[in-house]
Design goal:
Strand content: 5-15%
Protein name: DUF721 domain-containing protein
CATH topology of the domain at 57-127: GMP Synthetase, Chain A, domain 3
CATH superfamily of the domain at 57-127: DnaA, N-terminal domain
Radius of gyration: 28 Å
Largest sheet: 3 strands, mixed
Helix content: 55-70%
Distance between the termini: 76 Å
Structural class: alpha+beta
CATH architecture of the domain at 57-127: 2-Layer Sandwich
Order of helices and strands: HHHEEHE
Strand order of the largest sheet: 1-2-3
Mean pLDDT: 83
CATH class of the domain at 57-127: Alpha Beta
């Protein structure tokens, strides 16, 4: 005894074959047949390039806001993270001086605890 879906599938095949013979060409495939979200492709490419362990930019920004506190988070924000160096854009020269001279070791330690020691190895501050 064959399942019911077998008959239904067979009917669809017969219908498709009859229509293609009548038209003279096969039914074109749907455009959506081979579509995939771009995010899936990006994820695969990043894994092949060994970049999958790079931190998400939003995650780094959120961690900076938590680690730096409300005042410093308003005066500065992470610009880029490359090769373990987090570049932080600072609004005022005095804040840059304070961050470089006094707070850099503490901020770096907190970021490493939050994100991992391999992710953020150093901080660079610049005015922008």
């Amino acid at each position: 005894m064959k399942p019911k879906w077998d008959k239904k599938w067979k009917a669809k095949e017969v219908r498709a074959k009859a229509l293609s013979e009548w038209r003279g060409y096969a039914e074109p495939r749907s455009i959506e047949t081979n579509l995939r979200p771009a995010g899936d492709l990006v994820r695969v490419v990043m894994q092949k390039m060994n970049l999958s362990d790079q931190m998400d930019e939003e995650e780094v920004k959120g961690a900076w806001a938590e680690v730096a506190g409300p005042f410093l988070a308003q005066q500065s924000f992470p610009d880029s993270l490359r090769a373990g160096i987090l570049k932080v854009r600072v609004i005022q020269p005095t804040v840059k001086f304070t961050l470089e001279r006094e707070l850099k070791p503490q901020l770096l330690q907190r970021l490493q605890q939050k994100l991992g020691a391999q992710v953020v190895r150093d901080l660079k501050f610049f005015i922008g």
